[in-house]
């Protein structure tokens, strides 16, 4: 059987993309006040702090799923079910015209002391994922999972979903910041 660990280029891309999207989030929220972190675009939509908390919780779930799935036997038979490529994953995940519902366990309300705590948690979690991607010899392309937005994907693609998920919420944060800047009505 051919080993399905990441190539040098795949490993480099995954690490760079995960780091890039981490920096996008950090830059997007840098210097925001407590009031700005609590701002929301519309009533019943997440505020900026909730977006950060959600990403921190999503990082936890991604890590747990990844660790659980690499302990399972390879699933090469599921490769035929994979219908998306890397670029498509990024496009699908960052398409804000398509609304997605999160899992109840990823609702961040009340799970972090404040936005700074959630951001620190997100950063530590993302750094751990990047460190894993840098050195892992796990057969990520030979194990699969299902994601509601992309369908069946291999675990290399799953790493990239995590990065694109962050980029999606950075776009949401930027929309809220546009409201804060006077380009729309703000709700607190």
Give an overview in words.
The protein has helices spanning 8-29, 34-37, 48-70, 86-94, 115-135, 155-183; strands at residues 144-147, 151-154. The protein has 188 residues and is mostly helical. Helix 1 runs parallel beside helix 6 (155-183).
What descriptors fit this protein?
mainly alpha, single chain, elongated, 188 residues, 57% helix, 2 strands
Distance between the termini: 56 Å
Q: State the secondary-structure class.
A: mainly alpha
Proportion of strand residues: under 5%
Q: What are the segments in which pLDDT stays under 50 over at least 5 consecutive residues?
A: none
Number of strands: 2
Please give the order of strands in the largest beta sheet. Answer: 1-2
Q: Outline, from the CA principal axes?
A: elongated
How is the main sheet built? 2 strands, antiparallel
Query: How many helices?
Result: 6
Task: Please write out the topology.
Blueprint: H1 8-29, H2 34-37, H3 48-70, H4 86-94, H5 115-135, E1 144-147, E2 151-154, H6 155-183
Antiparallel strand pairs: 1-2
Helix pairs in contact: 1-5, 1-6, 3-5, 3-6, 4-6
Question: Could you provide a short overview of the structure?
Answer:
The chain is mainly alpha-helical.
């Amino acid at each position: 059987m051919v080993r399905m660990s990441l190539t040098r280029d795949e490993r480099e891309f995954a690490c760079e993309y995960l780091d890039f999207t981490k920096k996008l989030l950090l830059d997007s929220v840098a210097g925001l006040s407590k009031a700005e972190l609590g701002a929301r675009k519309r009533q019943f939509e997440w505020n900026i702090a909730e977006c950060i908390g959600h990403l921190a919780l999503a990082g936890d779930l991604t890590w747990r799923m990844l660790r659980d799935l690499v302990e399972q036997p390879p699933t090469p038979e599921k490769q035929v079910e994979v219908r998306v490529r890397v670029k498509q994953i990024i496009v699908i995940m960052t398409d804000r015209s398509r609304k997605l519902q999160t899992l109840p366990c990823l609702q961040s309300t009340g799970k972090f002391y404040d936005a700074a705590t959630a951001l620190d948690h997100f950063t530590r979690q993302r750094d751990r994922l990047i460190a894993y991607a840098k050195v892992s010899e796990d057969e990520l392309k030979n194990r699969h999972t299902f994601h509601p937005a992309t369908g069946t994907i291999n675990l290399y693609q799953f790493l990239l979903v995590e990065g694109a998920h962050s980029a999606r919420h950075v776009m949401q944060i930027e929309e809220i910041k546009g409201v804060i800047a006077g380009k729309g009505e703000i709700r607190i």
